């Protein structure tokens, strides 16, 4: 069944392009999951639908103080490496290896960079790798490189091999981390050869999964394949309204990830970026959710941190130095630097209902 007609897709994608929002892109296995969800629910408010298709309020619900780039990725891109490298921390850099993802997530926090890239094609990958390696080669303090995107596991095996070899020969990078959602959208990209390559270079993978029903057998098989090859797997995800904003959903997801030895490092407060309102949750409810998670699960969840990514790095509840309940302005402080955050208004908050969020029962 089609949930949205080709004309509606075209209309949304045209609007999305004008607003720097990602167009609809749903890989076939995920489409199948959404179909199963629709058959169970009989309506289109399900969590998996919300991940990849626009809901009615997707472009209409706005809040004050939304910005295109809350974490200021753009201002931390060195000269000549615009949309290619983000260097925010002294010892760590993030290489946007590709602007391609196997599917598009409606809530994506990097919409701005990706949609911007899509309007301005990147130079060929080899050229970008040359530039990044030249930059890293001159900075011995950078010892950790995060490969992100887009999804780094969309790049061809031969290029991935060459990148890893050159990182070892031409830079001081000792730790490579990959952030990937392809394990959900297109797990078949992780062949035995890819797993073995990643294991050989002692890569860490942070799996991005937002709902327990996204963990299907092909993904489980791939995680096991990676681990057998020596890859260390972790996870991280945002808490999103109407997708996973209930303690039972978070518990189910954490239990599945724990069974896969891929415990989350961070749970993210959604960035207040443009057109993010349909996924945001007020801070008080987020804090309550995470407290409830800690209180109702084993102590193995207590290490999972709820964080807000910010222009000065990740900040947490204990970093709040002021909170104006009237205006919703919250100030976090890290290493003497303030981060001003405008909370999502409680009156716009419609929490996800458990029967919809966990429709398999
Ligand atoms: S896969 Fe990641 S980068 Fe791509 S759209 Fe989804 S969240 Fe954004």
Features:
TIM Barrel, binds iron/sulfur cluster, three-stranded antiparallel β-sheet, single chain, alpha/beta, globular, 361 residues
Describe the structure in your own words:
Its cofactor is pyridoxal 5'-phosphate; [4Fe-4S] cluster. This is Radical SAM protein. Keywords: 4Fe-4S, Iron, Iron-sulfur, Isomerase, Metal-binding, Pyridoxal phosphate, S-adenosyl-L-methionine. The protein is of the alpha/beta class and 361 residues long. It has a single domain, classed as Aldolase class I (TIM Barrel, Alpha-Beta Barrel), CATH 3.20.20.70. Helix content is 35%, strand content 16%. It contains 12 helices and 11 strands. The strands form 2 sheets. An 8-stranded mixed sheet has the order 1-2-3-4-5-6-7-8. It has a 3-stranded antiparallel sheet with strand order 9-10-11, with no helix packed on it. Bound molecules: iron/sulfur cluster (SF4). Residues 22, 101, 104-105, 108, 110, 149-151, 181 line the site of iron/sulfur cluster.
> CATH superfamily assignment?
Aldolase class I
Hetero groups in this structure are: iron/sulfur cluster
- Taken in chain order, the helices and strands follow as HHHEEHHEHEHHEHEHEHEEEEH
> How many helical stretches?
12
Structural class: alpha/beta
The average pLDDT score comes to 93
Tell me the number of strands. 11
| Structural domains: how many | 1
Estimate what percentage of residues fall within beta strands. 15-25%
Cα-based radius of gyration, to the nearest Å: 20 Å
Q: Biggest sheet, open or closed, and with what strands and sense? A: 8 strands, mixed
**Share of helical residues:** 25-40%
Q: Could you tell me how far the N terminus lies from the C terminus, measured between alpha carbons in angstroms?
A: 23 Å
């Amino acid at each position: 069944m089609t949930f949205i007609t080709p004309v509606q897709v075209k209309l949304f994608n045209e609007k999305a392009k004008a607003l720097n929002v990602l167009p609809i892109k749903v890989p076939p296995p995920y489409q199948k999951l959404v179909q199963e969800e629709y058959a169970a629910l009989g309506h289109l408010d399900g969590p998996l639908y919300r991940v990849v298709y626009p809901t009615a309020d997707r472009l209409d619900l706005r809040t004050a103080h939304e910005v295109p780039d809350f974490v200021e990725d753009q201002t931390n891109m060195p000269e000549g490496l615009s949309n290619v490298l983000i260097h925010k921390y002294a010892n760590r850099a993030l290489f946007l290896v590709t602007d391609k993802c196997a599917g598009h997530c409606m809530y994506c926090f990097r919409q701005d960079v990706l949609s911007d890239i899509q309007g301005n094609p990147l130079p060929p990958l080899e050229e970008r790798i040359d530039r990044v390696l030249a930059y890293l080669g001159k900075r011995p303090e950078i010892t950790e490189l995060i490969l992100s995107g887009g999804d780094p596991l969309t790049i061809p095996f031969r290029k991935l091999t060459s990148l890893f070899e050159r990182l070892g020969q031409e830079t001081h990078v000792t730790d490579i981390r990959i952030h990937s959602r392809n394990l959900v959208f297109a797990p078949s990209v992780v062949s035995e050869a890819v797993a073995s390559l990643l294991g050989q270079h002692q890569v860490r993978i942070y799996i991005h999964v937002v709902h327990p029903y996204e963990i299907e057998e092909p993904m489980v098989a791939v995680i096991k394949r990676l681990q057998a090859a020596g890859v260390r797997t972790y996870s991280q995800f945002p808490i999103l309204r109407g997708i996973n904003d209930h303690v039972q959903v978070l518990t189910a997801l954490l239990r599945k990830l724990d069974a896969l030895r891929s415990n989350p490092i961070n749970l993210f407060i959604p960035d207040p970026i443009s057109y993010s309102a349909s996924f945001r949750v007020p801070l008080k409810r987020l804090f309550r959710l995470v407290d409830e998670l800690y209180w109702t699960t084993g102590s193995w969840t207590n290490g999972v941190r709820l964080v807000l990514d910010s222009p000065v790095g990740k900040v947490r509840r204990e970093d709040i130095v002021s909170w104006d309940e009237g205006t919703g302005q919250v100030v976090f402080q890290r290493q003497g630097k303030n981060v001003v955050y405008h909370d999502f208004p409680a009156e716009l908050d419609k929490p996800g209902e458990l029967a919809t969020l966990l429709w398999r029962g």
